[in-house]
Write a structure and sequence with these properties.
Blueprint (H helix, E strand, L loop, with lengths): L1 H23 L2 H17 L10 H20 L17 H18 L4 H12 L4 H8 L3 H23 L1
Helix pairs in contact: 1-2, 1-3, 2-3, 3-5, 4-7, 5-7, 6-7
Length: 163
């Protein structure tokens, strides 16, 4: 049993750590999430059957644990990986982009967990709807609904800024 667990840690540890770093923007906190993810698996090891798709399960668990940690520490989730619009390299444009990113991250902490998960996976991780559906074990339509609602609620959060 321990051999299989070690194999999972070796095969997926980097993916878990990289995802946590992208979400948290802090390598130390990402290491904490890495440990929490694998500790949670170890604690439930007896309940897993041979049918577990580890990549999906670990992605989902990592996103959840990273968002939980961000909420606990009230740390904003960086969204540096959001596609940037072409803009002049003027300081005021960079300042506005930074300000907008900070507002988005604050908004992510306020929306329902499932919507935040979908937003992070779609807009930060860059996954396709079908991949997200597989990870979250739901239909692609459900993913699209959650993404739509997340964007709508984030737009509401940013309403004063976007005027």
């Amino acid at each position: 049993m321990a051999e299989k667990f070690e194999t999972i840690v070796n095969n997926y540890g980097k993916q878990v750590l990289n995802t946590a770093i992208k979400i948290l923007g802090d390598s130390q906190k990402a290491l904490d999430v890495h440990q929490e993810v694998f500790l949670a698996i170890w604690q439930r090891w007896q309940s897993f059957n041979g049918q577990t798709k580890w990549s999906s399960y670990l992605y989902r668990t990592t996103v959840r644990k990273a968002i939980e940690l961000a909420k606990k520490t009230r740390k904003e989730i960086p969204v540096e990986n959001l596609p940037e619009k072409d803009s002049a390299d003027l300081p005021e444009n960079k300042l506005k982009e930074t300000e907008l990113r900070e507002l988005i991250t604050k908004g992510l902490l306020k929306i329902p967990e499932r919507q935040a998960d979908v937003f992070v996976l779609a807009k930060i991780e860059g996954l396709k709807t079908e991949e997200i559906a597989q990870i979250l074990q739901c239909s692609p339509q459900t993913v699209r609904v959650h993404l739509h609602r997340a964007v709508k609620q984030l737009a509401e959060e940013l309403k004063g800024y976007l005027k």
